[in-house]
Amino acid sequence: MRYLKRRIFQGLGTVLPNAWLPGFLTSSLYQGPLKSVCTPLLNCYACPSALLSCPIGTLQHFAAAGNVSWYAVGTLSVVGTSVGRMTCGTLCPFGALQDLLYKFRGWKASLPHWTRYLRYVVLAGLVFVIPYLTRESWFSKLCPVGTLMGGLPWVTMNAGVRSMVRSLFWVKIAILLFFVTTSTMVKRPFCRAICPLGAIFSLFNKSSFLQLAWDPDTCTRCGKCQMICPVDIRPDRNPTDPDCLRCLDCTLCPSLKLTTVFHRQPFGGKAIAAPVAGNASGASAN
Amino acid sequence: MPAPGGTRMRPIAFLATAVGAIAVLMCGIFRKEIAEVLMNGALL
Fold first, then answer.
1. ipTM at complex level
2. B3 and A29 in contact by Cβ < 8 A?
């Protein structure tokens, strides 16, 4: 029940951008004006029921044409400047799936600290550089969200698409299965290590309008915030950690609360604590 | 307790980022990129 509100938002983030149900009945894509809107989620626009466009797919499309999509970059920048990575934590359908998969009981592991930098490599390489050089949208070709929401439904319901299945499709299935399996053992492996959209939003965590505030005077450093954190970080060590999804699960603790960038004293008389030197960089290292 | 330096600069960083983000978005809209996004999304 603690996370009910976030689960409701995650459900809405899954259903509302994919509410074009006639797409499944008629085996066709939605082609209305909403497709011109980039959703601030990793939501495949090849899904038969998708109403909105994928921002990463849009960036790749423009990169493959030798351009930069100022519209997609601007949309993501406005969202990131407002809420940081909050859409990852509260709305993203694939994030919600990973949250649920981690609830399976069994062997659990931590992700090495260095993997957090992979998502920037994926963003630069697979979203910008390689599409620019090859004129192909390579992240979309390999994206597990695209496989789950676009590839599998189309292959299941359309014989024409099924006849076009080649080895790349099975590579995509293997990537999807890899992330589904690892999500049962590691907290949100795709969001933390691979997601290029998360990489873009994480650049805004330090300067976004909404901020996480920490009260050093009431914090007992018990570490329970890390236990409930969906990305395994210590918000008490660095409230503006680029990995923080602003899911607000940790604000159950009275030492952490949501505030704004203009609120100097969110706990009444105490300032927002800056990252503690030496601790912040290793906040999520385990 | 005074606000630490990094925290003190954050509102300025936010305002600069917000102005930049809106400018980039407006640039995209004025370049009529919305039509191309619509075409790309609708005709995959």
1. 0.89
2. no
Distance CA A100, CA B44 (A): 30
> Position of tokens 């390999």?
A142
CB A29 within 8 A of CB A23: yes
Are A84 and A153 members of one domain? yes
pLDDT per residue over A187-226, tens digit each?
A: 999 999 999 999 999 999 999 999 999 999 999 999 999 9
Last residue of some domain: A202, A225, A246? A202
Report the residue count for chain B. Answer: 44
Q: Where are the alpha helices (DSSP H) in chain A?
A: 4-15, 22-26, 55-64, 70-83, 86-90, 93-101, 118-122, 130-134, 138-142, 144-146, 152-157, 159-162, 167-183, 189-193, 196-202, 224-228
Q: How many CB atoms lie within 10 A of CB A153?
A: 19
Residues counted in chain A: 286
**How close A69 comes to chain B (CA, Å)?**
7
Q: How many CA atoms lie less than 13 Å away from A53 in the CB half-sphere?
A: 32
Secondary structure of A28-50 in the HEC alphabet?
CCCCCHHHHCECCCCCCCCCCCC
For residue A103, the tally of other CB atoms under 10 A from its CB is: 8
CATH code, A245: 3.30.70
What's the pTM? 0.90
Termini Cα distance of chain A: 28
A61·B13 Cβ contact <8 A = no
Name beta bridge partners: A49: none
Which chain B positions have a beta carbon within 8 Å of A31's beta carbon?
Answer: 42-43
Say yes or no: A82 and A179 in one domain. Answer: yes
Distance CA A35, CA A45 (A): 8
CA distance A63 to A57: 10
